[in-house]
Amino acid sequence: MLKVSHVKKSFKKLAVLKDISLETQDGELIHISGVNGCGKSTLFKIIVGILKADSGEIHTDKDDYLGALIENPGFIEYETAWDNLIFLGHFNHRFQPEKTRDLLKAFDLDPDNPQAVGNYSVGMRQKLGITQAVMEDQNIILLDEPTRGIDKEGVQQFVNLLEQLRRENKTVIVASHDEIPGLVYDRRLRMKDGILLDEE
Ligand SMILES: Nc1ncnc2c1ncn2[C@@H]1O[C@H](COP(=O)(O)OP(=O)(O)OP(=O)(O)O)[C@@H](O)[C@H]1O
Questions:
Q1: Edge to edge, what strands does the sheet with 187-192 contain?
Q2: Which helix (H) or strand (E) holds 7?
Q3: What domains appear along the chain, each with residue ranges and CATH number?
Q4: Ligand 1 contact via 16 beta carbon (within 6 Å)
Q5: 90: left (phi over 0), alpha (psi -120 to 50) or beta
Q6: Is any ligand 1 atom within 6 A of the Cβ of residue 72?
Q7: Is the Cβ atom of 146 under 6 angstroms away from ligand 1?
Q8: Which of 93, 155, 156, 169 lies in disulfide reach of 27, CB 3.0 to 4.6 Å?
Q9: Which residues belong to any copy of the ABC transporter domain (predicted)?
């Protein structure tokens, strides 16, 4: 379970997150919408620990394992997708080759593609970014504008993946400024003026 309590973050005089609280349940699919620059990526960066909040707390349970795709996924540009994923898998020793190959194939990506990631299209790169966020059975998954640059078929493959994650009782938070066709959320939140509002 992820619990965000009264998180605040400013960049110099710009107060981006004014008082953010959020508690997730297992298996929940949550949408955070909001205009460009409202602070969605900043919140995700604080949750995963890339950025430090000025105040407030982030709590996860002992067994929770976070996966994230935030902004442009960073890869080793001159290596293949597969070598990149193996490299990322070394950090937590939870890499599952068969599962990861299946995830790539479900996105119409060839696990044996000899091309370097530097030559991948925006959409291919994004699919790779989504794959690394879920390939190790992460149970809390943060996806920032996940379908950016992905074609219609790819969006449907993404929707299928999220349905699979729901069946596996994973918690997924999607941040996007627009609707992703076919996604049915359990909860919708809107980020506005530094706070999170319930859409319902
Ligand atoms: N490291 C930083 N230094 C200064 N300002 C920053 C920094 N990171 C983000 N900001 C500012 O904080 C605000 C929120 O940025 P953030 O990237 O979180 O927005 P966002 O909601 O994710 O936007 P988008 O939908 O365009 O991705 C913006 O005004 C941005 O310029």
A1: 66-69, 140-144, 171-175, 29-33, 187-192, 195-198
A2: strand 3-11
A3: 3-198 (3.40.50.300)
A4: yes
A5: alpha
A6: no
A7: no
A8: 169
A9: 2-200
Q: pLDDT tens string for the chain (200 positions)?
A: 899 999 999 999 999 999 999 999 999 999 999 998 999 999 999 999 999 999 999 999 999 999 999 988 889 999 999 999 999 988 888 899 999 999 999 999 999 999 999 999 999 999 999 999 999 999 999 999 999 999 999 999 999 999 999 999 999 999 998 889 999 999 999 999 999 998 86
Q: Is residue 29 classed as helix, strand or coil in its secondary structure?
A: strand
Whether 42 and 26 have beta carbons less than 8 Å apart is answered as no
Q: How far is the CA of 83 from the centre of ligand 1 (A)?
A: 31
Contact partners, residue 82, CB within 8 Å, separation at least 6: 111, 112, 113
- The residues facing 48 across adjacent strands are none
Q: Which amino acid is at 86?
A: I
Instruction: Note whether 193 and 18 are within 8 A (CB).
Output: yes
Nearest atom within ligand 1 for CA of residue 177: 25
